[in-house]
Write a structure and sequence with these properties.
The chain is mainly α and 332 residues long. The chain has 13 helices and no strands.
Length: 332
């Protein structure tokens, strides 16, 4: 999830709600592509015929609802993930702020990457559950739901299974950060103008481009992580993983040995196709939710526009503005 620029006119709960709702809606609308990506990374039999055939095969075998397997888990995960990411991002920013109070592009990316890493590790068990729910047969499920999956994984495989592959979230953050940095440091050359003049559309394109490059570089780590999350002796066909391995390094070796090095990027097409609609829906939803909150707080005239409410000091925080209005009524 993106790191949102803090608006002091919103409360912490409102910022979290906006980010969570935006993420949930964007993920729900692009969930089928997420399912295709995970199935291709794991290497299940549904994913061995191309993107279109994967969808057809999956719907024929398990029904159209299979395109949204694991989506509820992903949506519920967004709220604690967003809260941890927003909170830790503000802490990490302090580490990279210079003496004059400014932060470099690299510092900002590093702060965002570290914040995302903290949130990912803290909520990692829900990611394992999401992967298991996606790879299982929806009509003959091993897990009946989120809580049942958490209980069964813990009961049958131990707590370590809920964190299988977590180190790859940390390692994958390195190429992800490098990819983001390479894009953002060359944007002025790409557009032929300073970054301070970028329009909202250009900033949206920049975000999608950075995400595409960063995710492509870190994708092998994601692929191995998905295989490790899915593999289990307690599941039919060991979770449907296309290679057998004993650990992280062995998973890399076996994948390259049996499937070829390009197999580490299986599912990348579906993942890249997901970027534009995902970020488009997420940012537009976040901005609309933000306008609704600003309207409720009294800063703008309507949630449909950015027209400021006349006579309202936009530098006041929500609580300060309410106290100011209450004081004005009492004085009147």
């Amino acid at each position: 999830m993106a790191t949102w620029k803090r608006d002091s006119r919103l409360t912490a709960l409102q910022r979290l709600s906006c980010a969570g709702l935006a993420g949930a809606l964007s993920h729900s609308l692009t969930a089928p592509l997420e399912v295709f990506t995970v199935l291709a990374q794991v290497g299940t039999h549904h994913s061995r015929r191309g993107l279109w055939e994967t969808g057809r095969s999956l719907c024929k075998a398990e029904g159209i609802g299979a395109l949204w397997k694991g989506n509820l888990t992903a949506c519920l995960r967004l709220f604690p993930y967003s809260a941890l990411q927003l909170a830790s991002y503000r802490r990490f920013v302090l580490l990279f702020v210079g003496d004059l109070g400014h932060i470099s592009q690299w510092g900002s990316i590093m702060a965002g990457s570290l914040a995302g890493m903290v949130a990912a590790v803290a909520t990692y068990p829900t990611e394992v559950v999401k992967t298991r729910l996606i790879v299982q047969n929806r009509l003959e499920p091993s897990y009946k739901g989120i809580l049942h999956a958490l209980y069964m994984i813990y009961h049958q495989e131990g707590v370590a299974a809920l964190y299988r592959g977590v180190s790859l979230s940390v390692l994958g953050a390195i190429p992800f950060s490098i990819g983001s940095f390479l894009v953002y440091t060359h944007l002025d050359k790409i557009w032929g103008q300073p970054s301070i003049r970028f329009t909202p559309v250009q900033n949206f394109v920049n975000g999608c481009l950075a995400a595409g490059v960063a995710q492509s570089l870190s994708f092998p780590f994601e692929t191995v992580k998905r295989k490790m999350q899915a593999q289990s002796p307690c599941l039919p066909h060991h979770g449907g993983v296309d290679v057998h391995f004993a650990g992280m390094v062995d998973c890399f070796k076996q994948t390259v040995k049996t499937k070829g090095v390009l197999a580490l990027w299986n599912g990348l097409t579906a993942n890249l196709l997901r970027i534009v609609p995902y970020f488009g829906v997420m940012f537009s939803t976040f901005e609309f939710c933000r306008r609704v909150c600003l309207y409720r707080n009294g800063y703008i005239d309507s949630p449909l526009t950015y027209k400021l409410t006349p006579g309202v000091d936009q530098t006041l925080k929500p609580k300060e503005l309410q106290e100011f209005k209450l004081l004005g009524r009492r004085s009147f």
